[in-house]
UniProtKB/TrEMBL annotation:
Protein name, UniProt field: 4Fe-4S ferredoxin iron-sulfur binding domain protein
Coiled-coil region(s): none
4Fe-4S ferredoxin-type domain residues: 17-48, 50-76
Superkingdom of the source species: Bacteria
Biological source species: Thermanaeromonas toyohensis ToBE
């Protein structure tokens, strides 16, 4: 498999992945580094309280995981 084919395969794999936030771990703080560092703007919540959710905009890059101090995010 050529280098570009491998890169495309890796990108397709990433596109199938999706971040998931465990609501029992997320404290719903207004200061949310994963949300602020998501390149897709995919982390949100309804209103001003409660845990955050990941929307369909998620690209599966995994960047948010390293920003979550509560370890509430996994890639599925
Ligand atoms: S995996 Fe990437 S695109 Fe998806 S929510 Fe996390 S930072 Fe955003």
């Amino acid at each position: 498999m050529g280098e570009s084919t491998e890169r495309i395969a890796e990108e397709e794999k990433m596109q199938r992945r999706q971040a998931y936030i465990d609501a029992s771990r997320c404290d719903g703080a207004s200061d949310c580094p994963p949300r602020d560092n998501c390149p897709a703007g995919a982390i949100f919540r309804e209103g001003d309280e409660g845990p955050y959710f990941v929307g369909p905009e998620c690209r599966g890059c995994g960047r948010c995981i390293s920003f979550c101090n509560l370890k509430a995010i996994t890639l599925l």
